[in-house]
Write a structure and sequence with these properties.
The protein contains 16 helices and 20 strands. It is an alpha/beta fold.
Length: about 525
């Protein structure tokens, strides 16, 4: 009886199992599989944990760790830790297959005993100029340098790729230096020229000359014109014992996008303090090997300065002038900042009508020397009774508008020029611009500088009316507005020395005197 009962239970169990659905059977198999995977994962974790503990606490690893800590504590371990050691052997190894990451000194590493004291008033004798030139163009370009160079007061050199034969009068120019050979450096930019390597090293080569009592190095091109007095005034704001990098970007958005908005463009002038020049002289050759694809010289210099962690101090008086055509719009709307430099002066029209390019530049620089601080600074004056607006750009032009024009509009540069790449759209320029007036009755009458001189403490400028292609149309179409200006052919501007605060708005009685044919 008992045997029959057991058999009945077994049969009941088998019948129950056989009656389960396939879905429930698969679910049970999946749960068994997941449990097995979890067990394997736990065992693997335990195995790896045991191996890691055995590795960490082994004698070999402990010895390696102590050796690393020993090496880390040594002053020679990192280049930025060398503060009291001789720097003469500091050098970056050139890359072999791929550029090595930069290794540069920390800012307070300077040990050169020739570093000048920041005390005492800055003068042009504390500045060394490095002018980039070409032996093929030097015969013509040296006349541009002669316009602003002061042989008795200034120090510097013109750096060429090869020596040129001296000519009569060259003793009033900077001395000629031949740049070092650059054939060991790689240059892979498909659109540029390897001369960018040579020019980028002018700073290092100038520093290694070891000239005494140098606070600043100023780099420029042989077609750059500097206002030396304003340059000294601008540099007087900075501490020459710090690492300082001064200049300005391009006027063209395209150029700034291709190179950098935080780069000083070389044509407008680059200013490097003595400490920064020393730092660059130690790393530049190794740095250049990391940037074979760059285009020119100023972008290579900027790359190395960036590795040192020194930002650009932008000054609005440095002008790269990446423009072509009529520069009137820029010259007549200079920002409220000392005018320091312009570049590409051969690529624009003559500044003053009726003169050649060289004659215009001679008048331009002669006026610049009479009153450097006021040069190209603008005053906006109004004659409310006659509804006239006077925009005076000292040393260049007086614009007389036959209607009231507010300062906010006049502050914008009238776009009379195109960019270096030929684009003449307003959004191409990195400055506020405005379109020229289309109506001939709204266009200003222009009086260009004829002569300038001193009247005691003041400066007296004589401006002469320019003949324009719209004169006949004005007589016919704009008679009511132009009647008051019909017989005015000369304007004299009496300017007084600028104080610390410059003002755009002045009174007509204090500044302007007019002369007509009736007087």
């Amino acid at each position: 009886m008992l045997g029959k009962m057991k058999a009945t239970k077994v049969m009941a169990y088998q019948d129950k199992s056989s009656n389960m659905s396939p879905r429930r059977i698969r679910s049970r198999q999946w749960r068994h599989s997941r449990t097995g995977t979890a067990v394997v994962a736990v065992l693997a974790l335990l195995l790896f944990t045991t191996a890691w503990f055995s590795l960490v606490f082994s004698g070999t690893t402990a010895r390696c760790w102590h050796r690393f800590k020993d090496w880390e504590r040594r002053p020679q371990a990192f280049s930025w830790g060398r503060r009291r050691q001789d720097r003469s052997s500091y050098m970056l190894q050139p890359p072999t297959s791929s550029p090595s990451p930069p290794s540069v000194p920390h800012l307070p590493f300077l040990t050169n005993t020739s570093l000048p004291s920041a005390g005492g008033e800055l003068s042009v004798k504390h500045i060394v100029f490095g002018i980039a030139g070409s032996s093929h163009l030097w015969k013509r370009r040296k006349e541009l340098v002669r316009l602003w160079w002061r042989p008795k007061d200034m120090r510097g050199h013109v750096w060429l790729e090869e020596r040129v034969n001296p000519e009569e009068g060259d003793d009033s120019l900077p001395a000629i230096m031949v740049s070092e050979d650059i054939s060991r450096f790689r240059y892979t930019n498909p659109t540029g020229h390897p001369s960018g390597l040579r020019i980028s090293r002018i700073l290092s080569e100038s520093f290694r000359l070891g000239l005494p009592d140098v606070r600043w190095f100023v780099l420029g091109d042989d077609d750059t014109i500097f206002n030396v007095d304003n340059l000294v005034a601008v540099l007087n704001k900075y501490d020459p014992s710090e690492m300082v990098y001064i200049g300005g970007p391009s006027e063209s958005h395209s150029a700034n996008t291709y190179f950098s908005y935080s780069m000083a463009f070389g044509g407008g002038g680059i200013v490097i303090s003595h400490p920064l020049a020393e730092a660059l002289s130690k790393i530049q050759d190794g740095c250049l090997d990391r940037y074979p694809k760059l285009y020119g010289s100023d972008d290579r210099l900027h790359a190395c300065i960036t590795e040192l962690g020194v930002p650009l101090a932008r000054e609005y008086g440095f002008h790269q002038w990446d423009i072509k055509g009529n520069a009137h719009g820029l010259l007549s709307s200079h920002p409220i900042a000392p005018f320091v430099s312009i570049h590409h002066v051969e690529a624009v029209d003559p500044f003053y009508p009726g003169l050649s390019s060289m004659e215009s530049l001679k008048r331009f620089t002669r006026t610049m020397k009479v009153d450097p601080a006021s040069f190209l600074q603008r005053s906006i004056c109004y004659d409310h009774n006659r509804h006239l607006t006077f925009s005076v750009s000292f040393g260049y032009v007086v614009q007389v508008f036959p209607h009231i024009v507010l300062p906010r509009e006049l502050e914008r540069s009238e776009q009379t020029y195109s960019a270096w790449n030929g684009i003449n759209l307003r959004n191409e320029f990195d400055l506020d611009t405005r379109d020229p007036y289309r109506s001939v009755c709204k266009k200003p009458i222009l009086f260009y500088l004829k002569d300038v001189g001193r009247e005691g403490n003041a400066t007296l400028g004589s401006y002469e009316r320019a003949r324009g292609k719209y004169d006949l149309k004005r007589k016919v179409l704009c008679f009511p507005q132009m009647r008051v200006l019909r017989n005015v052919h000369h304007i004299e501007v009496l300017g007084y020395p600028l104080g610390k605060n410059w003002h755009l708005v002045c009174s007509t009685e204090d500044v302007l005197q007019t002369k007509s044919d009736k007087q």
